[in-house]
Specification:
138 residues, single chain, two-stranded antiparallel sheet, globular, 15% strand
Length: 138
């Protein structure tokens, strides 16, 4: 199977690059502005930003990594051929906290977890995603 240098083959498919996922999130926010899609796009944007600053740990299969104790939020993402772990404080990327709060509020009201297009949060998410596209990709 031919694989683009910035993607990773997984069984029968090819995973998107973080930049492609950010572009998908931007397109989805126009028609389906759900908190979950926005949050996923923002995590991809954080992976792009932190990768450009070499702020990640490469996870090696079979090697036990020490737990992260000095960060509020940790996630991992395939970037190129590497499985990278990103750890950060929510104060550094408050958009994640804002989206989690919006999702929680929607659940409490038993309402769809939608970000109102044109709202302050919607514009904040779109700006964060668009700014992240300017970072170098892998």
């Amino acid at each position: 199977m031919a694989v683009a240098p910035s993607s990773v083959a997984v069984e029968s498919g090819v995973l998107s690059t973080p930049h492609e996922e950010i572009e998908k999130a931007l397109a989805t926010l126009q028609d389906e502005p759900f908190c979950g899609y926005a949050r996923r796009g923002c995590l991809e944007a954080i992976a792009v930003r932190m990768s450009s600053e070499n702020r990640y740990t490469v996870l090696v299969p079979g090697r036990q990594e020490p737990p992260v104790t000095d960060a509020d939020f940790v996630f991992s993402r395939l970037v190129g051929a590497e499985n990278r772990r990103f750890a950060f404080d929510l104060d550094e990327f408050p958009i994640v906290r804002r989206l989690d709060e919006a999702l929680g509020e929607a659940r409490r009201r038993e309402a769809p977890p939608v970000i109102e297009p044109g709202s302050e949060l919607w514009f904040e998410v779109v700006a964060f995603l668009e700014e992240s596209l300017a970072y170098p990709g892998e």
